[in-house]
Amino acid sequence: MDSTGIDNLFLAGEWIKTDQNVTTMEGANEGGRYAANGVLLASGYAGPKVKIVELFQAPWWGPFKAADKARYRARLPHALDIADTRWPT
């Protein structure tokens, strides 16, 4: 993950950039693990790092994410806004 650019400053929480795509306890846990690994690296620790579990993403979800990204880049409305304009997302 990215560094803060400030020596010995490590951020952790559900609000930092992680592989989790929603606000969850799992995201907070992952953020804490990245911060812990940063502390270990900065301290010169030579042992094993804290394990970061890769987020499983169902392969069938990829085309939906790609379509959403393409619509966003083209400045088009979200697909669900087209289906029912009474409830903008």
UniProtKB/TrEMBL annotation:
InterPro entries membership: Amino_oxidase
GO MF annotations in UniProt: oxidoreductase activity
Annotated ranges, domain Amine oxidase: 3-40
Record's protein name: Amine oxidase domain-containing protein
